């Protein structure tokens, strides 16, 4: 008798969990749409006209066609009406999840919310900066007066540092004269720079030496082959509009995986780099993504995977643009 009652309770408990799970899944996967209030403020509602995020935001970043298209983003960035940054480090707007909860306040960068770089975005909380992932999880707590975006899995952070607007209002320098600085990895652990390069592949970033941070599985190494097969073509087109003196070796791109798939983002992000003769590691303005089948796509600057372009299709258009540029600029040193 006891066993029967126990099993009935267990089945009932399991069914309750299943119903809760299905309810949460349905809620998180429901269609969401932008809408405007009578006074032209922006909000978000679901397909049944239930308001998910009240209309109290500026209608920035949203085009006319966006109102009829379902929102696919897991994190929705909106700027509350009348909000103004109060003090450094400045935030810009709010990040909501698809249930309408505020997850964080993005760092103000380039006149808007900070970009996702190598899978992480800077955020501001209680006057300090930290990092969130694509799902809005605070993976590195806000604890610094300023933090750089990640580069090769490395970020510089500092306390007792601030931008000096007395020297330049538009592009103020970061005053580090009284700062305590350090470098961190993407888990928030401190990285100790090298005093010198120990290996040819060790990095120089902004004049600082670091051990080569990239490591790949056998399957991940295969993702580079389509890019390496056409790398001469990609590199030639990429540097066609450069006027800085660069050697042929400096004008040869190479590739690193800077972000791996996560729960709701099934892509590897592959970043193009070039290395100067000085050893300095530089990011090129080129990113690609690999899907679960290993297919490679060009990725637009905003990392909108819905607008990704198959590698060879993109390359043919890029080469056509490079040829046109060469015809229009006869003084360009790296002729196409």
Written overview of the protein:
This is WG repeat-containing protein. InterPro entries: WG_beta_rep (IPR032774). It holds the Pfam family WG_beta_rep. The chain has 336 residues and is of the alpha+beta class. Strand 22 (281-290) and strand 23 form a beta hairpin. Residues 6-11 and 13-27 have low confidence and may be disordered. A 9-stranded antiparallel sheet has the order 1-2-3-4-5-6-9-10-11, with no helix packed on it. The radius of gyration is 24 Å and the shape is globular. The protein has helices spanning 2-29, 218-222, 225-229, 231-238, 311-328, and strands spanning 32-36, 42-46, 51-58, 76-80, 94-96, 102-106, 108-109, 112-113, 121-125, 128-132, 138-144, 146-147, 155-159, 162-163, 174-175, 180-184, 190-191, 203-205, 208-210, 254-259, 268-275, 281-290, 296-299, 309-310. Among the domains are: 32-144, no CATH class; 218-328, Roll (Nuclear Transport Factor 2, Chain: A), CATH 3.10.450. It contains 5 helices and 24 strands.
Task: Give structural attributes.
336 residues; alpha+beta; Nuclear Transport Factor 2, Chain: A; 9-stranded antiparallel sheet; 5-stranded antiparallel sheet; 24 strands
Task: Please specify the SSE layout and strand pairing.
Elements: H1 2-29, E1 32-36, E2 42-46, E3 51-58, E4 76-80, E5 94-96, E6 102-106, E7 108-109, E8 112-113, E9 121-125, E10 128-132, E11 138-144, E12 146-147, E13 155-159, E14 162-163, E15 174-175, E16 180-184, E17 190-191, E18 203-205, E19 208-210, H2 218-222, H3 225-229, H4 231-238, E20 254-259, E21 268-275, E22 281-290, E23 296-299, E24 309-310, H5 311-328
Antiparallel strand pairs: 1-2, 2-3, 3-4, 4-5, 5-6, 6-9, 7-8, 9-10, 10-11, 12-13, 13-16, 14-15, 16-17, 18-19, 20-21, 21-22, 22-23, 23-24
